Fold this sequence. Notes:
Blueprint lengths: L4 H9 L8 H11 L5 E4 L5 E5 L6 E7 L4 E7 L5 E6 L11 E6 L2 E7 L9 H4 L10 E2 L5 H7 L6 E4 L4 E2 L4 E4 L2 H16 L8 E7 L7 H10 L3 E9 L20 E6 L2 E2 L2 H14 L4 E4 L6 H4 L7 E2 L2 E5 L7 E4 H17 L2
Amino acid sequence: xxxxxxxxxxxxxxxxxxxxxxxxxxxxxxxxxxxxxxxxxxxxxxxxxxxxxxxxxxxxxxxxxxxxxxxxxxxxxxxxxxxxxxxxxxxxxxxxxxxxxxxxxxxxxxxxxxxxxxxxxxxxxxxxxxxxxxxxxxxxxxxxxxxxxxxxxxxxxxxxxxxxxxxxxxxxxxxxxxxxxxxxxxxxxxxxxxxxxxxxxxxxxxxxxxxxxxxxxxxxxxxxxxxxxxxxxxxxxxxxxxxxxxxxxxxxxxxxxxxxxxxxxxxxxxxxxxxxxxxxxxxxxxxxxxxxxxxxxxxxxxxxxxxxxxxxxxxxxxxxxxxxxxxxxxxxxxxxxxxxxxxxx
Length: 345
């Protein structure tokens, strides 16, 4: 399992805020170009790849590249930077976070400031500070100093977090949603390199999932799949504070076959393919009704319709800089996806 850690760290520390996925796209191209027959970046920024098969069926594996983050929207006279949130990043996790502003001149470190308890009342400390009232401090004393450093309006901003090993096979970091899905797709590509496939195998590393599943709309239309397996993370609920029966998803219990979510009901054919493969190979797995949604909701409705079932890795504390995932779940997701693709004739 430890052999996956260097690639996981490389994926999560390469910037790719939703709508600004240039660097992560280039990294993914470099990781897959030797294992596929075709690869390109489309006009929206999606990385599209194909491994040719002998038959007419077109099977898609999708994983979104983007991460939740921020973007510079204003700089005040004293040099404090105001920002807008891109994607479902909760304001509760933002105060006192370290950030990186990605500028044309290079990366600039900063921190999201907050008013310390010495200057607030008890009632004020009970309130969640909205993102519009937060600011980034890069150590500047004026607007001119910020501009001189290279910071400008619409520069993307990522939270500054790396990869930490926890007890056992669990790790902590940011952007596991959905760089872990990208990892699964990359490893599947490698596993199938020398396999003679009956079906065309298509890959989409899509942009802007966190801002309305936008990239997948374009990639699915372009690639014309008949069957699709979107690979994503999904929120586990096995920790204190979550209401009972919100979902049954747990860390360490295997990949999640996402049967239903708030925008989507999976199609029976790909869902049964995943379940049968898992049962046959004794791969631990979870069939679940999940919170939120995935690119599956967009892919399923493309053209005449696509038989779609997402396969997800359970993650605790989703959309935070301290997401936790179990390496065993990642390995079993890679295995389940690879072996399911091998069964398609």
